[in-house]
Amino acid sequence: MSPVLDIRDLHLSFKGYGGLSEVLHGISLRIEQGQKVALVGESGSGKSVTARIVLGLLQETRTARIRGAVEFDGRDIGAMSARQRAALRGTEMSMIFQDPTSSLNPTFTIGRQFREVLGRRDPGIGRAASDARATQMLAEVSIPDPARVLAAYPFQLSGGMNQRVMIAMALANRPKLLLADEPGTALDVSVQAQTLHLMRELVDDHGTSVLFISHNLGVVREFADRLYVIYRGRIVEEGPAAAIFADPRHAYTRALMDAVPRITGGGLPDVPEVSEDFLAPLIRHEEDAA
Ligand SMILES: Nc1ncnc2c1ncn2[C@@H]1O[C@H](COP(=O)(O)OP(=O)(O)O)[C@@H](O)[C@H]1O
Ligand SMILES: [Mg+2]
Question: Is 66 helix (H, G, I), strand (E, B) or coil?
Fold first, then answer.
């Protein structure tokens, strides 16, 4: 079986007044079927731009120069037309962002927004069928009163509830790949932990592959099978999550690890102090014997 996502030697530059500046310097990352992979690094390291390339969004940005291979389910994203890439989003690939309020439309009820999402896969879906499917998905994210939530507008729901709705919508079309970019960072820590737990159960049930993006190693600890640590546009350490947590070898990974108790405890920034050692070459951990 081909991997769900295969990124090889991906370079990205932006054209600006001073010429081209490269922000991804040859990234390679693979996600097998049903695997949950985390991309972890501090703010500005190149996580979101990677996700935007996978989603086929940066390809449409005039100032972006992309080089390297990005294959989704055996298909070359770079070789697709803008239309073909757009058709993948919300169907075979879906995304959850940091702040649910920026992705949910404030002027439509949740039920109506579900109908739009489900209509991308099944354009003829009627209201009754859409509501039934939405109700089922809301129940899967442990929303106790789906009928009330379907009739509600996003502002009538709590942040945690909206985040659950987002997760339910993102999985409603049974995507092969879910991209979660800092999900729940806008929520308080215990609500974030709850929603991540729900998300994990759901993707496991559905066999969905995940690219989970975070600046916080503590958050990915419970979530990911495999870890890629990114520093300034380069992967510096990769391997099974358990192996890296047991034996972090790269200086930058260790610095991120040291920052974890501070984030979960007091909410202090987790940006480690820059050290020359952070530029040491990529460390690859052995694959699991399985
Ligand atoms: N549209 C853009 N034009 C120019 N530079 C950009 C653009 N988008 C992102 N960048 C730069 O690319 C780098 C990586 O950004 P990003 O992927 O958003 O980081 P993060 O890891 O925090 O998600 C940053 O230096 C950012 O300033
Ligand atoms: Mg980001």
Answer: strand
**Could you tell me if 36 and 224 are in contact, meaning their C-beta atoms sit under 8 angstroms apart?**
yes
Q: What is the pLDDT of residue 269?
A: 54
Which ligand neighbours the alpha carbon of 185 most closely? 2
Nearest to 25 by CA among 14, 34, 35, 13: 13
CA of 92 to the centre of ligand 2 (A): 22
Instruction: Give average pLDDT by consecutive 10-residue segment, the chain, 290 residues.
Output: 95 94 98 97 96 96 97 96 96 87 88 96 95 96 94 93 93 96 81 86 95 90 92 97 96 90 55 87 77
Residue 265 buriedness (CB in 10 A; 0-12 / 13-18 / 19+): exposed
**Residue 262: per-residue pLDDT:** 58
Lining residues, ligand 1, CB within 6 Å: 14, 23, 41, 43-49, 61, 63
CA 61 to ligand 1: nearest atom: 1
pLDDT for residue 261: 62
Question: Could you tell me the domains of the chain?
Answer: 5-289 (3.40.50.300)
DSSP conformation class of 221: T
Pick from 71, 104, 106: which is nearest to 85 by CA?
Answer: 71
Amino acid at 12: L
Radius of gyration of the chain from its Cα atoms, rounded to whole angstroms: 19
Ligand nearest the Cα atom of residue 182: 2
Give 43 Cα–ligand 1 centroid separation in angstroms: 9
